[in-house]
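Dear support,

Our group has been running a series of protein-ligand predictions, and this particular one with adenine is the one our PI (initials K.S.) wants archived with full inputs and outputs. We had some confusion internally about which version of the output was final, so please treat the block below as the authoritative record. The input we submitted was:
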Amino acid sequence: MAIISDDENIKFEKTKNEDITSEETSYDMSFETNIRPKHFDEYIGQSALKATLKISIEAAKKRELPLDHILFYGPPGLGKTTIASVIANEMNTNIKITSAPALERPRDIIGILMTLKPGDILFIDEIHRLNKISEEILYPAMEDFYLDMTTGKAQTLKSIRIPIPKFTLIGATTKAGALSSPLRDRFGIIHRLEFYNDEELTQVIQRTAKILDIKINVKGAQAIAKRSRGTPRIANRLVKRTRDYAIVKSNGIIDEKTANDALDTLQIDKYGLDNTDRALLNIIADKYQGGPVGIETLATALGEDVKTIEDVYEPFLVQKGFIQRTPRGRKLSPYACKCFNISNIDLQQSLF
Ligand code: ADE
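Confirmed final output from the archive:
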């Protein structure tokens, strides 16, 4: 139950949430917004997810009710915010985008919930980082669309229920396991976003290039796709870097050779691994004889924080089969040894 003091008394002034924030605040947002697909027919990949969502959306429209609350989880850059915006467009509703770290105080979440209109979508990124008080404010809001609050002090303490419009909460997280179970249980639809295959990424790259008027042929797009770690956000970033390279070093057109030269210059290898990924594998191979090694030890040796390794680097390395998570820590896989020519881990050979 949220406590509001007398002086705050149910006047919900502009809170910091009303300044829309999102997962990409530190990233180039205008670029993201321009190329972001608006409808399902422009959205490439995630076909199982799209099929499920289309049915839920059609049913919600027929029933003239908001969609069930939705939780998306999966590694960063796979389009959780994008698909939430597509849903809002398909439902013809508004979307408010915020993230859990911006909802620190009760009045932050209350303020945003009070300004919703019927059918609106509230998107909360990094929802696993929501604090307990904000979470508890969300429970009755999600379940029965009211806010449960007390006002006044001591003897004058009064409990009040404030109805709010029926809305849809879309939560996004890179760590589904870190969500409390009462919160997770309140989502009617829970979906994992998958890494994109090379063909899907090629299409994403071609679409982005067309919107941004970048000249690229199919082989050029395929070359970038192969090194984009299954992630559209990375693919789109590499298109821009490759475009710059093509303008400076060639005729401005991205073909296979220009793409490969540009990516070599950026030190992104044929698997899409960058210097940090390689350093991480190298540490396991060289310093820990292939592992297992604990994540904290790995983070210290690499000079990165645990969260960045877990959220950014590791999911792709695990998905590619280069490292394995074991109860005793991270291990290099036999496949990694094969790809990087490590014949005997115990020899402490360097990977690169
Ligand atoms: N840009 C980023 N993600 C995309 C996707 N899934 N489809 C089309 N364009 C995108």
